[in-house]
Every structure is written in C-alpha cells, then in structure tokens.
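Structure Section — protein described below
Tokens — whole-number codes for backbone shape
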Amino acid sequence: MHAWPASEVPALPGKGRDLRIHDTATGGLVDLAPGPVARIYVCGITPYDATHMGHAATYNAFDLVQRVWLDTKRQVHYVQNVTDIDDPLLERAVRDGHDWSALAERETALFREDMTALRMLPPREYIGAVESIPSIVPLVERLRDAGAAYELDGDVYFSVEADPHFGEVSRLDAEAMRLLSAERGGDPERPGKKNPIDPLLWQAARDGEPRWDGASLGPGRPGWHIECVAIALDHLGMGFDIQGGGSDLVFPHHEMGASHAQALTGEHPFARTYVHAGMVGLHGEKMSKSRGNLVFVSALRRDGVDPAAIRLALLSHHYRADWEWTDQVLQDAVDRLARWRSAVSRPDGPSADALVEEVREALAQDLDAPAALAAVDRWAALQHTEGGTDEGAPGLVSRAVDALLGVAL
C-alpha cells in the first residue's frame, strides 16, 4: 500500500530543540532524545468513512512531532497502518450494499487526498492489515504455542495474564477495562474466556465474511490489536520512540498491543512513550462515525475552504485537549490565515529571528501549537502596525510557519 506525496519541508537556520511530551503511561512529561533516526508508529484509519476532523486533529499532532524532530536534524522513521479489515468496515459495506474491499480502497484514497491537501508528512511505510496477514499468523501461532493465547470455539484469544506489564499503559482498574472493552470492540461477556477482557487474536471464518489462510489456526481473519503489533515489529522493532493515536485508543488498543509485543519478545517496553491526542466534538458530543456527527475535511475542501485554514483551526487547540468544532473556530482560522499572508507579502518587516526560536520553544514543550500561533500573531501585528526594515524577515517567517507548523503562506 502506498502513502501520499510529501510536501517539501524548508530548512531553517540553527537547530530545533528536543521534544518534551506527555506520556500516557507515566502520566507526566518526559524528555525525548531519540537517536539519529527517531521512530514513531501512529495508528491509522479504519477506512469506511474518512476523513473527519477528529482524524485530522490526531494526524496533525503527530505531524508536528515529525516536524520538531526534523528541525533537530534527525531522520524520522514513521509507520502508519490502515485497518482495512474489521467489523465496522464489514458492517458499513453490508449496510450500504458495497463490496467491503472496494469501500476500503475508496475511503483510503480519499484519506490520502485529505492528508496531501493538509500537508501532513507521509509515513515511510503505510501498511494495510490485509497485506500484513502473512506476518500476523506466525505471531498468533507463537503466542498460542507459548501458552500466552488459547482457543475458544475455533477463535484464538490472548491471555492478558501472560504479560507481567499488562495495565501499565492505561493504568486503569479492572472494571474500567471491562466497560471500555465492551464499548470498543471487545466481547467481555463471552462465556469460556479466561479473563473477560482477553482480546481476540484470530477469528475463525464466519459465513459470508472474508477469510484468509491461517495455517495451523485455520481459515479466518486477524484481531484488531495484533495487526499493529505485526506491522510495528516488522518495521520498527521493540522500544521505538512514540506510539501515537487518539485518546480513545489508550484502552484497549494500545494496552493490548503493548502486551502482545511484550509477551512475544520478552522485552519491555513495546514503545518508550505513549502519546495521545484529544477528541474533537460537535454539538456537545465526541465526533464519531457511530454517532454520525462528522465534519469531513473533503467536504470543507469541496466548499472552497483553504486547507491551510483547516490546519490552522486544528493548531489553535492543544493536541491533548478535547475541544468543539464550530463555525467560529473555522472563521477565526480563515481570518488568521489572511492576516499572516498579508504580513509576509510585504518586502520587509520586523526581525523574525526571535520568532523562529519562540515557535521552536513552544512546540518543544509538549507541542504547544496555540503558543506558537500566538507568537506568529504578535509578529504579524507588529508588521501591520509598525513594519520593519529586515528584508529577509517575511521570507523567514513564511519558511518557519511551513517547516514547523505545516502551513503554506
């Protein structure tokens, strides 16, 4: 599976700062100092209805991580998956009378278009669950043969008791885990499981559903969490720098994925840091496919909204915050974009060297994009009220906003 084209990231004078970011597993800020190649895995879409503003906010957060690392003169090894086989995709295909694989292909293509328009830097590897099945099957077999998994009526479940570090990512109690498991694709009420929250690794073939050769597992399809584990281990290995996604993935997805990998390898941790973006709401509720209260990037683009304004709307909120999408949020972003473009269109202006350092510092401190935007606002206001004589300033501001914030002026 191919990703989308990369927009050029302008080079800036000097060097950026190392990232200090919130780690879900410890509940506090941690200093990240990756090696020459920073490694990040971000969970991708289930392609049955892409791309709403909640998706865009999540991928914007991890695009900022990439940009901060690139500004420190590191390379970035970024991997993202596509869950192109799962219950919600099959259910939507049946509901709408579509072939499930054609639906997945169509929505993935739309996602690529949206990411390109928003200038999100693409992953080095963009991998679908279906193409990962040859890697997934042997992992499930290894877990089963090691006693970390068990069969139940032909299905194979992971035993959470097999990982002594289980629970360290989400830090939730058993009851909270059970409730979230039921809400987010698990089956805690199924009789015969060793633990109600044990997740599915391999689902035996069901009538009318797609199936793949599972070798000794029998025909079927993979569970949700093992998909990301197989992809991450294949391309990044254990102990990569950041596992990222929306806050709704903390449990069960990231908790279970970490335990799968740790039980498989005997190593800990799966990821050094777990970073999660907040949820975007609309009309007082979390924006989600199940509720249908979605604002789509593609719809805004069709209505003539500049993708740079959409990106500024996302950047105006801290990545960890839960926030509400409104018409006013978008209008404020449109107005900000106009002010910034007007400011950099002049032949000279106030010195921008300090501004670049302000933006770098804001982003290095837990991706504080609102503080970075405020710094550019101050420079633009000074440009409009007093002007300046530095001929290189407008160009430097334009390059910095592009390189660090992903907004083309």
Q: What stands out?
A: Residues 53-71 form the longest helix (19 residues). The first strand starts at residue 20 and ends at 23. The CA atoms of residues 301 and 318 lie 23 Å apart.
